[in-house]
């Protein structure tokens, strides 16, 4: 009787894991496989990513070459494995940059309000209304030919696409938090806008921003891939997945594995990231709800 | 009388993860036909859970371990959902705490009531339902019922919304009505009207009620019997008079002593309840033992059963015979009457006019918009170290004054001076010292403390801004000690603290800046009565120890009486009466002050029902005359509505804004039943 009351206490890590949503667990498993492969791939792949003569060009998939051989005689499987870390790093750092810039702009704009906020918001709306590929193209043109194919440019484009969208989320969070009394107290104390943002707004917006980061990161590999596919991204022979799909797309009927391989890698990464995000959002949503009820 | 409801050994737990938290421990009670049973206790004691259980409702995570709820011979716990749905609303009515969320905002109120009537087969068609709805609205004292039933909820005042909810609860002539804190969100004058309505309905319909509340004073007016709950157990049940005259359980005694008494401002804090309810650390025996003055080792061992004292007075305390009857505090030191000479003035506001929705700048000059005037031509004077209380119902502009003083709202007209120097209207233009001098404490500590910052961090910010150097850690420890908190609290997050502890932290944050004026905006109204008592105690000590003035904003006259030096009574942004606390609480009264005083529920008073039909929303909009004219029972006629009333000063230290001659005002007071104040000097 009394045991039922006092029970609870500290749960083991496993019990805690058992209560997480299934989507989070599946998503995390897929992500872990991807990260492990991306981190170790360059060290164990049987052929170099640009090594020609790995087999008969356009040979079908086999045990030795699971994704077949491309036109130039390169092992597609080795290229996909090697390219994993490139895709991951580009996507995550682009999203992270977008998150930092977006949250700064959004929190500030939401807290300051007034005319400045309206101006910033209209500007962001203009940026959001430009389709992402057009935006990417504009950025490439603006950067000039000498920067073309530079990975930093890809990161910058991803950030440029995401920052306005993240800024809007951060702004709405800031507006909500800024109405709470502790922010009023800080204002009465005479804190600067920067101090209020850092000490009062940001800590209370973390769950919103975390979900936002995961959500955007889930789509970033597609962005990076699309850039590569259209030739705005990295240059050959970099084994970036989108670029590989573009290079091999004419072989779709002759050697389908060379397209399906990188396609599968890209798709599974995106699915994994999205499942993970969905679970994460549900956890954060749940804890927030619990907090309200108490 | 036969028993309508019999609850036997009801034991209920909430499931949280894999573990169960027990919230009701073998609760046993009954309600006779036509009887009103009150359930009272601090928040979290399980009183609302009992109320909901009587409706056969429980949260998804609730598990009923044992017990029966017999309603008119059948066990509610054995019924399926369909059978329960037939009983609810038909034989058992429910009045919720918050009518604003209980009513569907997108449906006309008449339609919502008709829905209930038709669903339970009380009316065949909509025409019949509309007729019945009109009758019901008339019964609950809604003016012009035929018109009200076509209104949407947001077009009604809070009191009117609650009347609609009550009409809905009684629509099908239920045998029982469960009321869950039905007046908690309402103003004191509205609350009185609702209580009068319930007393009246009960006399006419003879319905049984279960009235769940935290307010003992209310139960004194409406309940036949009162059950006191503590930590999920009933600890004492007795007839109304018996309980208030001779409470036996130490918890009941402490609870009654915690209620601020308007007729006994110094009585509070004489027998305060120690500590707090901590669910995790309850002993297997009496749950109150850790906080009890009379506890012995044996108390914590064996569970206490309700045993009869006399008649139907039962108490769950094995030592009730040993505990001396609730002794009146004798020979206590009376609060020294403080007379602060107004030679020096700390805060001086003159001709303050405040409005929301004012546009500034060029745009404002071209398109002035429609600002809503909240405070008109207000003068305010607070001496150093003085506690000035501003009272009034919600919407009277009390908090708006505090916002203007703090620099959050720019006055439309008038000036505010601090120590003789004019203050800039907005906080951004004030100097560091001016900002330090005025500190704001908000009503709700949940919202005023950053949930992601530790208490130490929260206290460190004002120190960093205003501190005069010296050890940060020591200063924080000292600030926590000032509000009677241990210094280990510095490492905790706000959600690890109780409501009262959070408010203490908020007070400490204001004090650590060494202000000369504290703006206390309803800082007690979000707290439980026993916690309230301890915070009042703290504020009184602080007032004695430090030379800090307070602008104390409250709607609770009893609290004001225990704390304030001077009081201003605000109605619709106009000061109706102002003066020292003794003079405010003794005749002559302004008619509005009188109505506020009469509305305060008192433990030893009979309910009144002559306020039934006056509704606070049925008033004229502001005109040239007296703001209170629409509601004043003693108004003289046109003069009140047309001409602004004069400011009369019947006595040194008292001012009244009224057309009525002073002798008449004294006469009004004599006719009313305001208790001759025990401690008043007058």
How is this structure best summarized?
The complex is a heterodimer of chains A (294) and B (682). Chain A has 294 residues and is mainly α.
Could you characterize what this model shows?
The complex is a heterodimer of chains A (294) and B (682). Chain A is mainly alpha-helical and 294 residues long. Chain A has helices at residues 2-6, 13-18, 22-44, 76-112, 114-129, 132-143, 151-178, 181-189, 193-229, 241-248, 257-293. In chain A, helix 4 runs parallel beside helix 11 (257-293) and helix 10 (241-248) packs antiparallel against helix 11 (257-293). Mean pLDDT of chain A is 83; it is low at 1-10 and 286-294. Chain B is 31% helix and 22% strand. In chain B, strand 21 (566-571) and strand 22 form a beta hairpin. With 682 residues, chain B is an alpha/beta fold. The interface between A and B is medium-sized, with 27 and 39 residues.
Feature tags:
heterodimer, A: 294 residues, mainly alpha, 11 helices, disordered N terminus, disordered C terminus, B: 682 residues, alpha/beta, eight-stranded mixed β-sheet, globular
Termini separation of chain A: 24 Å
How many DSSP helices of chain B?
A: 24
User: What is the structural class of chain A?
Assistant: mainly alpha
The assigned structural class of chain B equals: alpha/beta
Taking strands numbered 1, 2, ... along the chain, how are they ordered across the largest sheet of chain B?
6-7-8-3-9-10-12-11
Principal-axes geometry of chain B comes out as: globular
Query: What Rg of chain B, in angstroms, do the CA atoms define?
Result: 26 Å
Radius of gyration of chain A: 23 Å
Which protein chains make the most extensive interface, counting residues with beta carbons within 8 Å of the other chain's beta carbons?
Answer: A-B, 27 and 39 residues
Note the gap between the termini of chain B.
49 Å
The major β-sheet of chain A equals:
none
- The multimeric state of the shown protein is heterodimer
User: Which residues of chain B form runs of ≥5 with pLDDT under 50?
Assistant: 326-334, 609-621, 676-682
- Helix fraction bin of chain B: 25-40%
């Amino acid at each position: 009787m009394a045991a039922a009351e006092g029970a609870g206490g500290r749960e083991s890590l496993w019990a805690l894991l058992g209560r997480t949503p299934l989507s989070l667990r599946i998503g995390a498993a897929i992500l872990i496989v991807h990260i492990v492969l991306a981190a170790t791939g360059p060290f164990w792949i049987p052929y170099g990513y640009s090594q020609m003569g790995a087999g008969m060009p356009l040979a079908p998939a086999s045990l030795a070459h699971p994704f077949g051989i491309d036109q130039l005689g390169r092992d597609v499987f080795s290229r996909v494995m090697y390219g994993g870390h490139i895709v991951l790093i580009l996507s995550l750092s682009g999203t992270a940059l977008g998150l930092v810039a977006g949250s700064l702009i959004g929190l500030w704009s939401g807290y300051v309000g007034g005319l400045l906020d309206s101006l910033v918001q209209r500007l962001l709306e203009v940026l959001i209304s430009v389709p992402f590929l057009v935006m990417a193209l504009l950025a490439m043109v603006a950067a000039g030919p000498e920067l073309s194919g530079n990975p930093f440019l890809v990161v910058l484009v991803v950030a440029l696409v995401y920052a306005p969208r993240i800024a809007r989320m951060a702004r709405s969070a800031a507006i909500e938090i800024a109405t709470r009394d502790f922010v009023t107290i800080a204002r009465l104390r005479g804190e600067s806008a920067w101090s209020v943002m850092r000490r009062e707004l940001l800590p209370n917006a973390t769950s919103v921003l975390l979900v936002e980061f995961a959500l955007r990161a889930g789509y970033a590999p597609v962005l990076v891939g699309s850039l590569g596919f259209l030739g705005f991204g990295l240059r050959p022979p970099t084994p970036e997945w989108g670029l590989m799909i573009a290079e091999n797309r004419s072989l779709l009927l002759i050697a389908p594995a060379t397209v399906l391989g990188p396609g599968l890698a890209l798709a599974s990464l995106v699915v994994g990231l999205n499942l993970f995000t969905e679970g994460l959002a549900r956890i954060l949503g749940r804890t927030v709800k619990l907090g309200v009820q108490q | 009388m036969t028993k309508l409801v019999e609850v036997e050994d009801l034991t209920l737990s909430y499931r949280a993860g894999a573990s169960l938290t027990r919230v009701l421990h073998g609760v046993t009670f009954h309600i006779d036909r036509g009887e009103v049973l009150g359930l009272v206790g601090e928040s979290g004691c399980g009183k609302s859970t009992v109320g909901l259980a009587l409706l056969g409702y429980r949260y998804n995570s609730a598990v009923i371990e044992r017990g029966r709820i017999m309603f008119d011979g059948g066990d509610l716990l054995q019924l399926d959902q369909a059978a329960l749905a037939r009983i609810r609303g038909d034989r058992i009515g429910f009045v919720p705490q918050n009518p604003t969320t209980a009513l569907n905002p997108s449906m006309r109120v008449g339609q919502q009531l008709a829905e209930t009537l038709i669903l339970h087969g009380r009316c065949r068609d909509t025409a019949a339902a509309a007729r019945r709805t009109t009758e019901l609205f008339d019964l609950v004292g809604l003016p012009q019922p035929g018109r009200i039933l076509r209104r949407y909820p947001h077009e009604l005042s809070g009191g009117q919304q609650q009347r609609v909810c009550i009409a809905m609860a009684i629509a099908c002539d239920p045998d029982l009505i469960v009321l869950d804190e039905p007046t908690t969100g309402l103003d004191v004058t509205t609350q009185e009207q609702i209580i009068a309505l319930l007393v009246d309905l009960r006399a006419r319909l003879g319905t049984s009620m279960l009235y769940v509340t935290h307010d003992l004073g209310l139960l004194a007016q409406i309940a036949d019997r009162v059950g006191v709950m503590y930590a999920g157990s009933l600890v004492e049940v007795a007839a109304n008079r018996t309980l208030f005259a001779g409470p036996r359980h130490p918890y009941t005694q402490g609870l009654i002593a915690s209620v601020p008494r308007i007729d006994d401002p110094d009585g509070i804090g004489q027998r305060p309840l120690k500590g707090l309810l901590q669910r995790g650390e309850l002993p297997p025996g009496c749950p109150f033992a850790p906080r009890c003055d009379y506890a012995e080792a044996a108390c914590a061992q064996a569970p206490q059963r309700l045993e009869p004292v006399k008649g139907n007075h039962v108490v769950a305390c094995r030592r009730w015979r040993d505990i001396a009857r609730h002794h009146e505090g004798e020979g206590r030191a009376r609060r020294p009457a403080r007379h602060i000479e107004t030679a020096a003035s700390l805060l001086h506001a003159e001709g303050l006019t405040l409005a929301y929705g004012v546009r500034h700048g060029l745009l404002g000059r071209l398109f002035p918009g429609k600002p809503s005037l909240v405070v008109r031509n207000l003068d305010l004077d607070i001496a150093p170290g003085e506690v000035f209380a501003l009272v009034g119902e919600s919407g009277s502009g009390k908090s708006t004054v505090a916002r203007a003083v703090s620099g959050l709202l720019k006055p439309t007209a008038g000036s505010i001076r601090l120590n003789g120097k004019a203050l800039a209207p907005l906080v951004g233009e004030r100097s560091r010292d001016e900002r330090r001098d005025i500190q704001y404490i908000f009503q709700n500590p949940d919202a005023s403390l950053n949930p992601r910052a530790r208490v130490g961090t929260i206290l460190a910010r004002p120190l960093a801004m205003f501190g005069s150097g010296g050890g940060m850690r020591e200063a924080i420890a000292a600030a926590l000690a000032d509000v009677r908190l241990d210094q280990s609290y510095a490492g905790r997050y706000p959600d690890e603290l109780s409501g009262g502890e959070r408010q203490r932290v908020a007070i400490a944050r204001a004090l650590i800046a060494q202000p000369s004026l504290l703006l206390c905006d309803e800082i007690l109204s979000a707290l439980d009565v026993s916690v309230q008592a301890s915070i009042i105690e703290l504020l009184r000590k602080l007032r004695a120890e430090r030379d800090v003035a307070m602008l104390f904003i409250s709607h609770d006259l009893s609290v004001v009486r225990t704390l304030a030096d001077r009081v201003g009574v605000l109605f619709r942004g106009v000061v109706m009466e102002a003066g020292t606390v003794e003079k405010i609480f003794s005749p002559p009264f302004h008619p509005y002050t009188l109505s506020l005083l009469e509305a305060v529920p008192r433990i030893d008073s009979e309910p009144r029902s002559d306020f039934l039909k006056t509704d606070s929303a049925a008033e004229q909009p502001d005109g040239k005359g007296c703001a209170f004219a629409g509601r004043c029972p003693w108004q003289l006629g046109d003069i009140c509505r047309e001409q602004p009333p004069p400011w009369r000063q019947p006595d040194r230290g008292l001012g009244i804004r009224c057309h009525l001659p002073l002798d008449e005002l004294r006469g009004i007071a004599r006719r009313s039943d305001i208790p001759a104040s025990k401690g008043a000097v007058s």
